[in-house]
Amino acid sequence: MTEPAHRSHWTNRWTFILATAGSAIGLGNIWKFPYMTGVNGGSAFVLVFLACIALVGIPLMMCEIMLGRRAQRNPVDGMQLLAAEARATALWKWVGIMGLFAGLLILAFYSVIAGWVLDYVVRAAGGEFRGIDGATAQARFNAFLAAPLELILWHSLFIAMTMGVVARGVNSGLEKTNKILMPALFAILLVLLGYSMAVGDFARSASFMFTPDFSKVTPVVVLSALGHAFFSLSLGMGAVMVYGSYLQRHVSIARTTLFVAIADTAVGLLVGLAIFALVFANGLEPAAGPGLIFQTLPIAFGKMAGGTFIGTLFFLLVAFAAWTSAISLVEPAISWLTENTRMTRHQAAWLIGLTDWVLGIAALLSFNVWKDVHLLFGLNVFDTLDKLTTNILLPLGGLLMALFAGWVMRTHHVQEELGLASGAYRVWRFTIRFVSPLAIAAIFLYLFGLVK
After folding, report:
1. How confident is the model at residue 297 (pLDDT cuts 50, 70, 90)?
2. What is the domain-level CATH number for residue 237?
3. What range defines the domain where residue 350 resides?
4. pTM of the predicted model as reported, rounded to 2 decimal places
């Protein structure tokens, strides 16, 4: 398949790995994974999550990268082009359209949480956590959520940070930013991990996360882990597909996918170990839920020696991770606009940024002046966006991509892109045809109450 002469490409395989890992490593790893581990029984959730990454996440990521590189287009035009190549209906382009909108909707509420993180970087650096107790931590967080103008300020800053990178393009923006932020992220993580090993209850943390307790493996745990695997690896929204469209032909999709999945999963596990070591050492509750890093961890940072420095480092880590993920969420939409309109990349970036800024304001108002406004599922704006994307659009996008790659595309076209040995290809094809679709179908059956 020919590619547009003007299309940008990653400089080399490692820049693609850094960018895709940056897309995958975000709030899902550092904010969501630890609290989901805590509320879902620790090791039970971790073990199931690892299985989901291996059996569903990695094959689907290979699938999405393969589709992007084969098409050399944005997800919408790419799916239409691939459908034409396979002599299938052009309606497959709606997979790309759905993914494009999923990314935009995710950034709308994602930037709100990222704004909280930016605020907490400042709070930690200012020593606000010193001597703080549980009641005070909760009261300060609730007061922060009740201040819409303050939330809008931080949300606006994060949107500006994100669009400032995206507007600069693939090589000058995405690639250069990830070359700086990803090494910095890993360096901060190693410092935090070392500190937790020195002063935290690391043995109990490791036991909590890795000692098998199969009695806690329930359908809820399995489906929560499966759903989080999609969110963690940024699957089903076209972000990985559009990154794959910038990948050179000679690069191995299987090896790069494995590197990204290992890096993404390792970050989640290491952050969990570091967080729970501090939580247990300070007699706090691991099942604190979404407030774990905003209400529980500040108490730990306030009690420990050097807590101001470590707390600041931790929230910087979260901010860097959120930033690298956010720039991938809008890349499908930016790519489509620049390839189908006369908009420059700068114009497209700021148009998308303005759209997400407005949607984000609606989401953050859910915590204060619009807290009684309910949309789908009886949820507020913020929770509606979260549930609609994480539980419906991402799994549905992954399901449709798996069905397309496994049943619609010509076998020799898929083999041409993946370059797998015959045995490995048969395993991948069986997984993408049967295992992944059945696993995703289970999410929907449970979501709509058809199975308990």
Report:
1. confident
2. 1.10.4160.10
3. 13-447
4. 0.89
